[in-house]
Amino acid sequence: MNKVTNISDAISTIKDGQTIMVGGFGVPGTPFMLIEALLQHGARHLTLIKNEANEPHLGVSKLIEAGRVDRLITSHLGLNTTVLGMMNDKKIEVEFNPQGILVERIRCGGAGLIGFISDIGIDTVLSKNKQIITLNGQKGTVESALRADVAMIHAAVGDDIGNLVYEKSARNFNPAMATAADTVIAEVESIIDTGSLDPDAIHTPGAFVDRVVEIRKLRDEYGILEHHVFT
Amino acid sequence: MSNLKALKLTKKQLTVSNKRDKIARRAEKEIIAGQIVNLGIGIPTLILKYLNWEKRVQIHSENGILGMKSHCSRETADRNLIDAGGGYIDLVAGASFFDSSLSFALVRGGRLDIAFLGALEISTRGDLANWMIPGKYTPGIGGGMELAQKARRLIITTLHTNRRGRPKILESCNLPLTAKACVDMIITELAVIDVVDDQLQLVEIAEEATLEEIVEKTDAPLMVPDGVLPRF
Questions:
Q1: Which backbone phi and psi does A114 adopt, to 5 degrees?
Q2: Is B189 an active-site residue?
Q3: A205 interface with B at CB cutoff 8 Å
Q4: How far is it between the farthest Cα atoms of chain A?
Q5: Phi and psi at residue B46, in whole multiples of 5°?
Q6: pLDDT tens digits along A124-150
Q7: Is A190 left (phi over 0), alpha (psi -120 to 50) or beta?
Q8: A16-20, A180-184, B41-45: least confident range
Q9: Cβ neighbours of residue B11 under 8 Å, at least 6 residues apart?
Q10: H or E, element range at A101
Q11: What is the pLDDT of residue B11?
């Protein structure tokens, strides 16, 4: 089955009120083209699951600034004072997770599990309102699995059956999110002939991916952020 | 207890930048050959400047890298290669990439030898608060809790006092904790302090510091061993 489609068809089924997972950690791995299309599409009252909220006026921050997002499940917003301000003004609800717990909740959701037990944050405010149980003599909080209606993924290379290869630090949350949504949409920098990827080198097998969209031209957003060049 | 007079030296003034470099230089000496190390944002990242690469250390970055080397120039910056703080980096030979899940398996699973982190407050028994000031600074925890709780050794590199000149080392923390009883060592521009059995033990004194100054700027009981302490 050929999963390659155009961008408007790829995101046309997204509805108001849905939960959307978005890959990326900073610029690398963030699907800017899909985010832009979602912004044009106009869906509202979304719940977003993303490691961070990119930076002001960049990536998912555009969706949040446009008032499309009611709730954000994330780990760190230190580089986005705009979204932090919206959180403080109660314009958006934010749920913070330790970063590794966030990805593990997603992995769990993708693996068909209900949740897991962890001692991270057990002695902190983060364990408030969480169920605490003891297993094998160890105390931990119950962490629920996370799934989404739609996952938006960025990969370097893909083929028409949805096999994906990520590049360098652009992998981050993408492989876990690609397993944890009812509809998984991948934007890829290039589509190559099916069969030309080394089976040993495929990071996400096509079974997890529903739609593949080729990025014909990388927007400026994918480029180097000058303020992060430190030397 | 030491003779206080014996420890008095002429006080030299260090700039904030000098202090940060001094801390980073001293912290580097804690790294043993072959170790897997994570460096938090701020002073910990400065350790890269002083790292002796002959030790074949592998620097872990939470976003899925083992073997980062240093921040790189605009010319060599790769749009797909940043560290967890967002800076463009280069790699050492033998570096590897992986996803965020595996990255934290490395941390929680006990494969991270040392994490160096900054601090807002540290308590006598090694509690750490470094992630939020309620009502003022609430950016989220990122990977900090897992690093603090699960690194085999947690070393805090921080200025001895906060911006208002108040001690960061306290009898107990007032701010929300990152993790309880997690700190093994504190390195400041004034002192190196071990956390042993719920007590703070002074182990080295900065060339520029006096014992009185350290005691005055530390709001917690400090064990001072007999004899002359090494200077750094």
A1: -85, -30
A2: no
A3: no
A4: 55
A5: -65, -20
A6: 999 999 999 999 999 999 999 999 999
A7: beta
A8: B41-45
A9: B208, B209, B210, B213
A10: helix A99-110
A11: 52
- Output the CA angle A200-B110-A104, nearest 5 degrees: 60
Q: What is the rounded CA–CA span in Å between residue A182 and residue B96?
A: 31
**A167: which 2 tokens?**
């590049």
- The CA R_g of chain A, rounded to the nearest whole Å, is 18
pTM of the model: 0.95
Q: Is the alpha carbon torsion for A179, A181, A187, A193 positive or negative?
A: positive
Residue with tokens 């080392």: B169
Point out the residues of chain B with pLDDT beneath 50: 1-10
ipTM of model: 0.97
- H or E segment to which residue B68 belongs: strand B65-71
Q: Do A46 and A22 form a contact (C-beta atoms < 8 A)? A: no
Q: For residue B186, what are its two tokens?
A: 């504190």
pLDDT in the model for residue B12: 62
Q: B192 is written with which tokens?
A: 């190196």
Closest to B155 measured CA to CA, from B125, B196, B117? B117
Q: What mean pLDDT, rounded, does chain A reach?
A: 97
Rounded-to-integer distance, Cα B11 and Cα A199, Å: 65
Q: How many C-alpha atoms does A140 have within 13 Å on its Cβ side?
A: 14
Q: CB under 8 Å to A216, separation ≥6 — which residues?
A: none
Tokens of A149: 């209606």
Cα A115–chain centre separation: 19
Closest CA–CA distance from residue A63 to any residue of chain B (Å): 19
Restricting to A residues 68-127, those with a Cβ less than 8 Å away from any Cβ of B are: 74-79, 84, 87-88, 94, 96-101, 103-104, 107, 118-121, 123-126
pLDDT value of residue B171: 97
What b/e sequence results for B172-182 when a residue is b if at least 16 CB atoms lie within 10 Å of its CB, and e otherwise? ebebbbbbbeb
Pairing of strands B128-129, B121-123: antiparallel
Considering the candidates B28, B30, B54, B62, report the single residue annotated as catalytic: B62
* H-run or E-run covering A103: helix A99-110
pLDDT at A231: 81
Helices A99-110 + B100-108 axis angle, to 10: 120
Compute the distance between CA of residue B188 and CA of residue B161 in angstroms, rounded to an integer: 9
Q: How many residues does chain B have?
A: 232
